[in-house]
Amino acid sequence: MKVVFYILFFCCVIPFLSQENNNLIVFYGAIKNSKGKGISSVSVGLYENDTLLEKVLTNKKGKCKLSPFTYGHVYKIKFDKKGFYSKHIEIDLVKNYNSIKSSIEAKAFLEPSITLIKNEGGSDQRISKEIGAIAKAYINPNNGKLDWDYNYNKKTREEVEEFIELWEVIEKNEVLKKQFEIYTQKIKAAEDKLVKAELENEIRKKELESKKEKDSLLEEQNEYLFSYLESELELANKENELKEKVLLKNKTLLMKKELNNLKKAKKIEELNNEKKIQDFILKNSQLEIKQKDALAIKKERELFLLNKEKTLTEENLQKQKNIRNLILSGFGLLIIFLTYVFFSLKKSRKSNAIISKQKDDINKSHLELQQKHKEISDSINYAKTIQTAILPQTKIIKEYLENSFILYKPKDIVAGDFYWMEHFEGKTLFAAADCTGHGVPGAMVSVICNNALNRSVREFRLTNPGEILNNTKKLVIQEFEKSEKDVHDGMDIALCCLEGNRLSYSGANNPLWIIRKNEIIEYKADKQPIGNYRLKKPFSTHEITLEKEDVFYLLSDGYADQFGGEKGKKYKTINLKNFLLCIHREPMVKQKKLLEKEFESWKGEYDQIDDVCIIGVKI
Questions:
Q1: Handedness of CA 480, 481, 484, 488 (dihedral sign)
Q2: Quick count: other Cβ atoms within 10 Å of Cβ 77?
Q3: What is the mean pLDDT of residues 27-41?
Q4: Cα(558)–Cα(556) distance, rounded to whole angstroms?
C-alpha cells in the first residue's frame, strides 16, 4: 500500500472591533487520513515547556477545539493516535510580541488541516520519530497578525517527500519478506496439526474419565442445593409466622387500650350520675328537716294558742289564719320544687343518653378517620419510595463526583426538590432542582421535570447545559398543555456539566457559587423558570476553568428562606454564603454535617417551611 503524507495548512484571522487587555488565540483543528477522510478519537494535546495544559479528542468528522490561549508564550500542539505516526506543530507567540504589542489583534483563530499516515510497522525509524515540528506559526511583524512560517514549512514538506520515496522502496521489500514469512508459517502450521491430532486423542480419553467424575459431583451438588433450598423455605415460613403473631399481638394491645379507655369513660359517667343522685338526696333530706322543724313550730304554736285560747281576741284568730295560709303556701312551693327537681333529673338522664350516643358516633368517625389517615399515609410513603427510586444512587454519585456531598431535607414525606445526575459521552451532568410547591403536588411536578431532563440527554443526546434546559422547558410545557386547565407550575434549577477541569453551567433562577482563594464567585442564573413564563428566551451557558482546591455549590432556596433564630426571621442568602466561607476547607462529609447542624439550630421550634437541597463538590 502506497503511503502518502502531506500537510495542508490555512489560517483565518478575524480581529475584534476593539482591543482587549487579554489577547487570545482560538484553535480549531481538522485531522484527516491520506484519503482526505476525518479521523475520530485523535488525541490533541496543548503543551507549554513539555507541560500538558489541555487534551481533547477529535469528533467523528476529525474536528476539535482547544480552550483559548494567550500571547507571550511558546506552545506545542501534538497529534497522537494508535496506528498512526504522531506529529506536532509549534506556535511561537513570543517572537516579535514585545516590539509590536500595541498593534497585535485582540483575538485570532488558528484553523489548520492536518494529515496523519498509518504506521504499518516499517523499518525506517526516521519516519516513526518526530524530527521536529511539521509546521510553525509566529506573529507577523508587518501587520501584527498570526501567520505561518512558510520557509520552514516548505523545507519540512521537501524532507517529508524524501521520506515517502524511501518508504516506497522499503515497503516493496517488506511485501517480499511478508510472503516468505507466510510460507514458513504454513509449513509450521502443518507440523503443528500432526502434533495436535496426537494430543487430541489423549485428551479425549482423559475427558471421558473426567466426565464420569463430573456427573457424580453434579448429583451431589444438586442434592445439597435442594436441601439448602428446603431449609431456606422453612426459615422464610417461620419468619412470616412470627411477623403475623407480632401484628396480632399489636392489634390486641390496641384493642385492649381502646376498651380500657371506654371503661374509664363509663366509670366517669357513673360517678357523675351517683354524685347527682347524692346531691338530690341531700337536698330532699334538708327539705324533710325543714318540714319537721316547721311541724314542731306549728305544734308549739298550737299549744300556745290552746293555752291562751280564752284570752285571744279576734285579731289573734286572724293572725292564726294568716300563719296557716303561709304554711300552706310553703307546702305548695315545696311540692312545686320537688316536681321541678324530678323532671330536671329525668331530662338530664335523656341528655346523658344522647351525649353517650353522640360520643359513640364520634368514636366511630374517629376510627374511620384513623383508617383513612393510615391509607393516605401508606400511599404517600409508597410515593416516597417511587420518588427515591428516580434519584441517583449514592454509589453512582461517589463514582463520578468522589469528593462531594448532597444535603437533601424534604419538608414533607415527598418533596418538590430533587437532585439529578447523568454520565454521558465521558461527561458528568448533575443538577439541584426546585419544583413548584412541596409535598405531593411538588413531587408530581418533580417526576415530570426529572423525566424531561432524562429525555433531553438520553433521547436528544444533549450535553450543553443551556441546550438541555431549553429542550427540558419545551418538553415540560408540552406535558402541561395536555390539561384542559392552564397549568403554571414549573421548576427552578442549577445544571452543570463537568469534564476534567472544565465546568459548564446554566441556571433557571438558581445560581452557581464557586469559592476560590477564600472568595465567593457567583454565576447568576437566567431570570426565568422551566415552564410557562411571559418572557421566552434561550438559556445561557457559562464556561468555567476550575482550579485546584476550588469548591462549588448548587442549591435551592429552601435553606436561606427558613424562619428561625431569636426573632423568627429568615436565614437569608448572605448568612449562608458567610457560613460556607467558614467551612469550605473542611472535608465534604463534615461540611454536610455542619450545614445540617446549623439548619436545625436556626430552625429551633419553628416548622420547616420548604424543601432543602444543596450539592457541594470539591476539585
A1: positive
A2: 25
A3: 85
A4: 6
Starting at the edge strand found earlier in the chain, the sheet holding 74-80 runs: 51-57, 43-48, 74-80, 87-92, 136-139, 146-148
Distance CA(474)–CA(478), nearest Å, equals 6
Closest CA to 599 of 549, 551, 563, 555: 563
* Separation CA 217–CA 439 (nearest Å): 58
Q: Residue 594 and residue 613: Cα distance in Å, rounded?
A: 15
Instruction: Sort strands 113-115 and 551-555 into parallel, antiparallel or unpaired.
Output: unpaired
- Indicate the helix (H) or strand (E) that contains 30: strand 24-32
Distance CA 514, CA 522 (A): 6
What are the residues whose beta carbons fall under 8 Å from the beta carbon of 475, sequence distance 6 or more? 451, 452, 455, 456
Structural contact between residues 580 and 515, judged by C-beta atoms closer than 8 angstroms:
yes
Element (H, E) at 433: strand 427-435
User: Considering only 21-30, 74-83, 396-405, 566-575, which range has the smallest mean pLDDT?
Assistant: 21-30
Judge whether 491 and 508 are in contact, CB under 8 Å: yes
Residue 436: what are its φ and ψ, rounded to 5°? -60, 130
Region 497-503 average pLDDT: 94
Cα(148)–Cα(346) distance, rounded to whole angstroms? 117
Go through 430-444 and write b for each residue having 16 or more CB atoms within 10 A of its CB, e for each that does not. Answer: bbbbbbbbbbbebbb
| 136-139 and 87-92 strand pairing | parallel
Contact 493, 432 (CB under 8 A): yes
Q: What is the DSSP string of 305-323?
A: HHHTTTT--HHHHHHHHHH
Cell match 403536588: residue?
Answer: 441
> What are residue 522's DSSP bridge partners?
513
Which triple of cell numbers denotes residue 91? 506556535
Provide the sign of the torsion angle of the four alpha carbons 566, 568, 574, 580, taken in this order.
positive
Residue 504 CA to residue 201 CA, distance in Å, equals 65
Three cell numbers written together for 8: 495542508
CA-nearest of 452, 317, 439, 318 to 381 is 439
Q: Which residue has the cell 508587518?
A: 142
Residue 2 pLDDT exceeds 80: no
Every domain of the chain and the residues it spans? 24-148, 312-386, 391-618
C-alpha cell at 414: 415527598
Q: Quick one: CATH architecture of 24-148? A: Sandwich (2.60)
For the beta carbon of residue 158, count every other beta carbon within 10 angstroms.
8
Q: How far is CA 335 from CA 283, 329, 433, in A?
A: 13, 10, 82
Contacts of 126 (CB under 8 A, 6+ apart): 163
At position 566, the amino acid (one-letter code) is E
pLDDT tens across 519-542, in order? Answer: 999 999 999 999 888 878 999 999
The architecture CATH gives domain 391-618:
4-Layer Sandwich (3.60)
Q: How far apart are CA 58 and CA 79, in angstroms?
A: 10
pLDDT digits (tens, 9 = 90+) for 197-227: 667 767 776 777 666 666 666 666 666 566 6
Place of cell 427510586: 389
Rounded distance between C-alpha atoms, residue 608 and residue 410, angstroms:
9
Q: Give me the residue label for grid cell 452557581.
A: 512
Cβ pair 526, 465 in contact under 8 A: no
Q: Which of 78-87, 203-212, 223-232, 405-414 has the lowest mean pLDDT?
A: 223-232
Does the pLDDT value for residue 351 go beyond 70? yes
Q: Strand 530-531 relative to strand 519-523: parallel, antiparallel, unpaired?
A: unpaired
